[in-house]
Each structure stands twice: as C-alpha cells, then as structure tokens.
Amino acid sequence: MKRGSRQWLVGAAVMWGLAGGALAQTYPNHPIHLVVGFPPGGGTDVVARVVGQKVGDALGQQIVIDNRPGATGTIGANAVAKSPADGYTLLVAHVNSNAIAPNIFRKMPYDARKDFAPIIYLGYVPNVLAINPQGVPGVNSVKELVAYAKANPGKLSFASSGNGSTQHLAGEMLKLGGGINIIHVPYKGSGQAITDLLANQVQLNIDTMPPVIEHVKSGRLRALAVTTPKRASQLPDVPTFVEAGMPGFTMINWYGVAAPAGTPPEIINKLNAEFNRAIAAPDVRGRLTPVGAELAGGSPADFDALIRSDLDKYAKLVKDAHIPQE
User: Fold this and answer.
1) What is the full DSSP assignment across 33-97?
2) pLDDT above 80 (res 5)
3) Element (H, E) at 204
4) DSSP string covering 134-152, please?
5) What's residue 164's pLDDT?
6) Can you name the residues that pair with 240 across neighbouring β-strands?
7) Can you give the pLDDT at residue 163?
8) What stretches of 179-281 show up as alpha helix (H) in DSSP?
9) Distances 117 to 23, 30, 228, 251 between C-alpha atoms, Å
C-alpha cells in the first residue's frame, strides 16, 4: 500500500473514532421510545417502566414506554426492527418475540438473528401455574389438576398472552406431560388474561409472576407450581413442576433490551452501561424483586448468546411437542 493511502486510512479511522466519541457524548438529545410488545399491566410492562424510568433519569431524557401489543409481541418487535438505527427506538426484547415466535410462525416480518442489535439481558421472571379455585374446585396440586382435567375432558381452558408465548408453550407442556385435554385461549397480553382468569372465564394460566402474585397472596388465585429449576423466593411453598412430578418441565420468561441492527456501537455500549447500573440499583431491585424478577445484566454479547441459544432450544421443543406452525 502506498504511503499516502495508508495515511488516508489512518486519518479516516481517527476521524471515525472521534465522530463516534462525539456521538456518544451528545446522545441522547431527545426522548427515547422503549417499545413493549404487550399491554400495560403485564410482567414485561412492569419491568420496562421501572427500569426505563431509572435509565431515563440517568441519561437526562425521558424514556417513553410505547405499548404495541399483539401477535405474541411480534408487532412491537417488528416496529423496532423497521425503525431508524439511531438509538431512539428500543425494544424490550422478550423470549416470546425473539426466540419462540420465529419457531411458531411460518412467515415472520423480521429476522430475530439479524434485525436487532442486543444491548442487555435484563433478567427473567418465573412463570406460575395459577388456577381460579372456583373454576377448579378442590384442586390444590398439579397432580389433582391433572386428575380433574381427565375427569372433565375439554371443560378446562388455559389463558396465554398469545400463540407462541411461553404461557402457550408451558400450557402445551402441561397437556403433554399430564396427558390431558385443556383448551388454549390466547390473549394479547397478561392484563386481560388475568382479568378473565379472576372472572372464571378461563380456569388456569401459567403466567409471569408480577401480574399474578398479589392475587395469589390474597387467595383469589391459587398457585400450584413454578416453571423455574428452583422454587421462587416470593412463593417458597409453591413447588417447581419437576417437584410436582413433571420431569424436564422448566421454562423461564426472560427480558432484555435491543435496538435495530446497525445502531452505532458507541450508543449500544452507552445504553448497556446505563441499563447495567439501573438494574443494580437498590431501589430498582427493591421494586422488582418482590414481584419475582430475577435481574441479571451483562454485555451485549452475553445477551446475543442467550437469544441464539434459545432460538435453537425452542425449535427443538416445538418439534418434539408437535406444535403446528401457523
């Protein structure tokens, strides 16, 4: 390479680095939209609002929670995938929209592996099998639920936050593991699903802990099992599905933050640092831990590895459970 060309490349690299540094320093200069693919009131929305407020305060700009529910979170995810890669439209990436749905829907409007720039793995919340005691009288365990469902085939229904959600797949795993026939009723999110469960329009749901736990503590709902490998500290008397007699029944409901692919790495790294600080803050943990959130953190690469691993994991589960693609 000629000396002049080499000097030009070095100069361009220096200028690019200076531009990137300046970009990181000036970002953000107006509000950031954090898209949640589910309605207000569900676990995803709760986590987004608590963490988003903390990060917005640190950045000096409001983080606007933008609820775009429907299609198991894929409507919101698609909106972010198609947004400008400037750091002002972010996604609460969810196991449903970013790992399960790509294995359920034949035609996806985005590529979960290529259309997003992972920022951070926020953590997860347990899914809890909750029943309406009036709708399933005399049932106090998974074993008794299975027996009741076998004695009343087709009479019980379970809610989910949409086809291809963790709630949907957990319900299918319950059907498979128990050899029972219960009807799936999909919703656009946890909020209306829990409302109908409380009204006995559906009799059970394997939902995230935040919208469920207070109803369990009040006695309006009864928790029978959690989907995590170990018991949840918030519900210490509730067994895991494995303890309840269903080997291999584990499933976590994770959350993270992602930007459109092509977002400058300086912005990704700045956001990663602020979100890590936010979920480590005692006031954030004090608000989210009681409702079951297990906060994590880490690098963008850590979150990318989780997404790719779960895309493969749920491809196998969908195949093994013979869940038809839509």
Assistant:
1) EEEESS-TTSHHHHHHHHHHHHHHHHHTS-EEEEE---GGGHHHHHHHHTS-SSSSEEEEEEHII
2) no
3) strand 204-208
4) TTSTT--SHHHHHHHHHHS
5) 77
6) 226
7) 79
8) 190-198, 213-218, 265-280
9) 17, 21, 27, 24
User: Phi first, then psi: what are they for 85, rounded to 5°?
Assistant: -90, 65
Question: Pairing relation of β-strands 183-186 and 204-208?
Answer: unpaired
Angstrom CA distances, 266 to 14, 27, 30, 86, 273, stand at 15, 9, 17, 11, 11
For the segment 68-91, the average pLDDT, to the nearest whole number, is 96
Closest CA to 39 of 11, 6, 65: 65
Which two three-digit tokens encode residue 290?
């009681």
Bridge partner residues of 157 (DSSP): 183
> Residue type at 157?
S
Rounded to the nearest angstrom, the gap between the alpha carbon of residue 218 and the centroid of all alpha carbons in its chain is 26
Amino acid letter for position 93: A
Residues paired with residue 160 on neighbouring β-strands, in sequence order = 186
Beta-carbon contacts of 144 under 8 Å, excluding residues fewer than 6 positions away, are 138
Using the 8-state DSSP alphabet, how is residue 291 labeled?
G
The rounded distance, in Å, linking the Cα atoms of 216 and 219 is 5
Residues 6+ apart with CB under 8 A from 109: 74, 78, 81
CA distances from 46 to 190, 211, 222, 235, 255 (A): 11, 9, 22, 19, 11
Express each pLDDT in 244-292 by its tens digit: 999 989 888 899 999 999 999 999 999 999 999 999 999 999 999 887 7
pLDDT in tens, 112-150: 999 999 999 999 888 999 999 999 999 999 999 999 999
What are the b/e assignments for 135-160, b being 16+ CB within 10 Å? bbeebeebeebbebbeeeeeebbbbb
